[in-house]
Design goal:
This protein is α/β, with parallel strands linked by helices and 295 residues long. It is built from twelve helices and nine strands. Helix 6 packs across helix 11 and helix 11 crosses helix 12. It holds the Pfam family NAD_binding_11.
Length: 295
Amino acid sequence: MLIGFAGLGRMGRPMAAHLAAAGHTVLAYDPMVAEAPASVTLVDTAGALAATELSISMLPDGAATRALIVEGLAAVAPGHLHIVMGTVGPVIVRELAALSWVEVLDAPVSGSVSMAETASITTMVGATAAQFDRVRPVLAAMTAAQFHAGPAGSGSTAKLAVNAVLAGLSQAVAEGILLAEAGELDPAVFYDILSHSAAGAPYVGYKRQAYLAPESTPVAAPVSLIRKDLGLAMELAHRHRLHLPGALAALTVLDDAVADGLGPADMAQILTALRRRNPPRTHETPSATPTGALS
């Protein structure tokens, strides 16, 4: 199949390469890169993607995605499908799905750069049943699991809900490490305990080095990206008049991390932001139990 791919960033680049490796002819557009992956053809304009049967965008925000579809894909043939795989939120996806000349569905992904490189990420798809059946083989070349979440926009809703949980979990791990350190536990020993406890989610396991040795660990998901996604999640919550105190707390910590210049750092480095806002540890003896208190 002739496939157009817009966005050869840290996630998009390996995804486009997987499509080519699966036997598809891939035309890629990204004005910020000078070289495409092997077997992927780099084109000079977004409009060149209009000649493809199906196109995919892995772009950082809704404005870029809207511009690509409204301007770059204005001349597509009838029946052209476009898959929005960047995290842009359900409102924009549904707006674009209402366009008359192109079929738009969403399939944002969950997973890190290393998982994208091994095609082990998960995608959640907002589409009709017929659209899902049509695009699933294409998505399977880039992802390990494909879930049909519902109509257009549902994939983006699922992604925002997942990342709201992820942001809260990331903060909880960081706070647990701080508490363990305050009690003079070795952080590595505590992390082993945490990984094998009831709270030992897969995220806890694969983020070990990001928390304990950030200086030597590649960035998987930057603070700025998680902040953007959680902001979209809170906009969705506001639209539905939901009060999400945990997500609000996580958003505050992410804002602190961005203010500290940690936007490009891995999301695990909210631990650094929290450390900066807590007093240095001392080795003072804990206060004695007040007289008359239960022991």
